[in-house]
Amino acid sequence: MNITAIKQQQRLKGRYAIHVDGAYAFSLSADTLLEEKLYVGYELDETRLKAFKKLAANDKAYSLALAYAVRRIRSRYEITDYLRRKDYDEVLIHGIMEKLERLGFVDDEKFAEAWVRNRRLLKSVSERRLVQELRQKHVADDVIKQVLSEDEADERTVLRELVMRKRKQTRYTDNLKLMRYLVGQGFSYDDVKAVLSENA
Q: pTM of the prediction?
């Protein structure tokens, strides 16, 4: 058996269809194609063909994970969960995660920093809420603690900004309703009481 054609795929840029004896056999990413040093005329037997098909499946899984990881920064758990939902086996997932981590695409500390920074930019959010959200992403408590210790936002300043915005809404003119909302958002009762008393 020989490789008779290597064609760039139209639908998946960066992947190449490998044809053996005139028929499509498997596809590989450009990087893996170069690593394996495949070329038109390359000879292979059934064992090698089977090995390349397995490599192709693993290579596709890695390409999917990489695309998922670069679309936006994600936690280790999110990427692992994505691969599990696609029914890849744990050994393959472990290998992919190690490779992504080595290349800097998996870093829960960077993820947590970005999460806190983005949430602070988008809305006035309490530290307690940030902890809850990061735990939902399965970020380790020690990482959360470290990232929040470096966060320069002051809880009461964040709370004051939120109170100013909410006061403009008619349903939050009542202090009791506003207090319930703010405590529900994760701000401490003492902080809420203190900030609301400033505006009393």
A: 0.71
